[in-house]
Amino acid sequence: MNGEIAVARIVTFDELGPVGLICIDNPPVNAISHSVRLKLVDVIARAQKNPGIKALLIMSDSELFSAGADITEFNRPQGEPSLQQVQTAIESSPIPVVAAMRGLALGGGLELAMACHYRLAHKDAKLGMPEITLGIIPGAGGTQRLPRLIGARAALNLILSGTPISGLEAKVKGLVDEVAEDDLRDAALRFCERLVREGRGPRPTCNRTAEDALDEAEIASSLLAHARVLKGRTTQDLVIEAIKASKLPFSQGVAIEAALAQKSLASRESLALRHVFFAERESGKLSGVSSVDAKRTQPPAIQRVAVVGAGTMGSGIAIAFADAGLEVLLNDNDPASLIRSREIVHSTYASGVRRGRITQSVADERIRRIRNAPALDEVADADLVIEAVFEDTELKKDVLSKLDSVLPPERVIATNTSTLSVTELARATAHPGRVLGLHFFVPAHASRLLEIARTDHTSPESLATAFRVAKVLKKVAVVSRDAFGFIGNRMMLDGYFREAEQLLLEGATPAQVDTALENFGFAMGPQRVSDLGGNDVGTKARVQLFKRESRPDPYFVIADRLTEMGRLGQKTGRGFYRYENGSREAVPDPEVNNLIEKLASDRGIRRREINDQEIVERCILSLINVGAMVLEEGIAARAANIDVVWTSGYGFPRYLGGPMFYADTLGLSQVWQRIRHYQEKLGYYWRPATLIERLASASSGFEQWDRTSASR
Ligand code: 3HC
Ligand code: NAI
Prior knowledge:
CATH superfamily of the largest domain: 2-enoyl-CoA Hydratase, Chain A, domain 1
Shape: globular
Distance between the termini: 54 Å
Largest sheet: 8 strands, mixed
Strand content: 5-15%
CATH topology of the largest domain: 2-enoyl-CoA Hydratase, Chain A, domain 1
Structural class: alpha/beta
Helix content: 40-55%
CATH class of the largest domain: Alpha Beta
Bound molecules: 3-hydroxybutanoyl-coenzyme A, 1,4-dihydronicotinamide adenine dinucleotide
CATH architecture of the largest domain: Alpha-Beta Complex
C-alpha cells in the first residue's frame, strides 16, 4: 500500500496499484453527512488528477456501507456539496467508479452507489430505500436511477415497501453487477482490476432509460400490496409522481424529484415520522443518570434468561429471548402449564415455518434453546429472571422473595405485572435495587414496545440491564415510573378507552366509535381492541386499580357488564360485537345496543346523535390530557416517550407522531380551549391538566417542554 492522501478519518483514500480505494468511515452508521460529502468530492477530484489511478472504488471497512443521508441535517439548510453534487462528480468521472456494499446500504447510501458506474454487494448485504418510513421520497436521484436500473415497477415496489432486499436479490433485479460470497474488499478489488484490464470505462446510470413505464393498473396493485403500512399516508403519491418523471430526460426527472422531495420534507407527515424516529432512539437511553452512575452502568452480557410462570406471557417472553439467540429456562409450579407452554412454543414456531418466516432447522434450534426448569432453584445461574406468574400481589411477593434468596444479589429480577405496584413487590426482597418491571405486550415475541417500570429504589445498573434487554430483543424501550398502568395503560384507561365508553353511553354505537377512530388512523378501534384482548383482562385490571385508587361511576360500566355476562370478546364469540363461527369479523349486535341503552338510562344519561368528529376529538383530547398528567406526575420523563409508547404499542398512527406531538400540531391553546369546552359541557372528569394550561398560556408546547427538561 502506498501513496496515502492525507484526509481526515471520515473518508480515507489508498492507492492500490491502479485502483484508488475510497473508504467512508463516519460512525455510527456512515451517514452521508456534510463532512463526508466534502471529503468525497475532494478525494475524487484529487484522485482523478493522479494518472496512475485507473478506477475508483468506494466502500467502507465498517460493518455497513451507509444508512443514508444524515437525518439530523434535515431541519437545517444542507451545506454544499449536496449529495447530488457528489453524485455528479462521480457520474461524470472520466475513470470508472465502483461501489461495493456490505451490511446496510440504505436511502442516500444506496443512491450514492447507484450514481457509481458499477456496483457490487456482499450476498448478505441489505439494500433498500427506507425514506418512505420517514415520510420523504428518495431525494438524491433514487426515483430516477432506480427505475433505470431495475425498471419502474420494481422501483416503485422497493420504495413503497421501505424494506431492503438482499445482495443476492439485488443481483437478480439488476441493481448490482456482482455479488461477493465472502471477502467483499477482495472481490471488489479484483472487479476493478478486471475493468481496468478490459478497458471498460464509465457507465453513467443517468444515460440509461427505464425499460418499463408505470401504468395505472400496476400503480393500483402496488398501492394495494402496501395498503396496510400506507393507510392514511400521502408520501406514496409523491413517490409515484417522481417515478413517472423517470421517463423524462434525466435532468428534467431529477429536477421534478428535487421539488417533490422538498415538498415531502416539509410535510407534517415527515415531521411526525422523523420525530418518532428520534424519539424511539432517545427513549432507549439512560437519562437522568449521573456521569458517575453512567460509568458504573455497563451491564454484564446476558446469555441465559429465566422466566417464572409459563402461561401466555411467560411462553411469549421465552420465545422472544429464544428468537434473539439466548438460552431460556422456563419455570412453572404447575407441570400441566409447562406442557401447555411447550405446545405454545412448538405451534408458534410451526406457524413461522408454515408462513415461510423461518426454516425448520432455525425453528428447531430456537425450540432447543428453551428448557424447562421445574424447580425454582434451577434458575439460580440465570443472568436475568422475569417473573410472569398470576397477577396476584401475595403470590408475586412470594416468588420474588424466593428468587431473591436463590440469585446472586447483582442479578436483575423483573416482574411482568401490568397493574400491581412494583415498589410493593420489591419490598418482598432484600435487594429492591435489582427489581424493576418489564412490561411486555401480547404477543410478547412480536410486539415492539417494552415498558420498563422503575421504582425509587431501582438501581442504574438494573435499568441499564433492562435497556440492554430491549436492545437484544430489538424492542423499543420506554421507562415509566412505577404507577398504576405505567404510561400506556394509564392513558388508555383514564383517557382514550374511558371516553370511548362514555360516548357509547351518550348515544354512539361501538361500530361508530371504532370506525371513526380507525378513520382517524388507529390500527383498530377501542371496542375491537377490547374484544381482541378479552374484556375480562380490562375488568381484572380495573379491579386492581380500585384497590389502589378509585374512579367514580360511570367508569367502564359497559365493558365490566359484558365481562359479567361472559361476553369476553373474540375468544367467546361475543363481546362488544358478535363473531360468527370463529370468524374475526366484528358484527354489530343489537343485544349490546340494548345493554348500553339500559346502562345509560340507569344513570339518567339522555342519549343523542353523536357525530364522528366529536368522537375523534373527545377520545384524542382525553388521551392528550391524561398524557399531560402522566408528564406532570413524572411517570413519563418526556412527552416524546409517551409518543413512542402510543405509536409502538397502542396503534396510534405513527404518521401523526403520537398523541403529544399531535397536540403540538393542533396547538396547545386550541387543545386547552377544547378541553375547557368539554369540561363545561360534561363536567368533572374533563379537568384540564395544569401542564397544558401552563404551556398554552406561555404559547409553548410539549416539544419545547422536552427540550428544556434536560435542564430541570
Ligand atoms: N442519519 C443520521 N443519524 C442516523 C441515521 C441517519 N440516516 N441512521 C441512524 N442514525 C443514528 C441514530 O439516530 C443513532 O444515533 P444515537 O446513537 O445518537 O441515538 C445511531 O445512528 C445508531 O442508530 P440505531 O440506534 O438506530 O442503531 P441500530 O443498529 O439499531 O439501527 C439502522 C441502525 C438500521 C441504520 C437504523 O438507525 C435506521 O434505520 N436508520 C435510518 C435509515 C434511513 O432511514 N435511511 C434513509 C435516510 S433518508 C435519506 O437517505 C434521504 C435520501 O434519499 C436523500
Ligand atoms: P397465565 O394465567 O396465562 O399464566 C400464569 C402462569 O403462572 C401459570 O402457568 C401458572 O401455573 C404460573 N404460576 C402460578 N404460580 C406460580 C408459581 N408460584 N411459580 C411458578 N409459576 C406459577 O397469565 P398471563 O396472562 O401469562 O399473565 C402473567 C403475568 O403477565 C401477569 O402478571 C399479567 O398481569 C401480566 N401481563 C399479562 C398480559 C396479558 O394480556 N395476558 C399483558 C401484560 C402483562
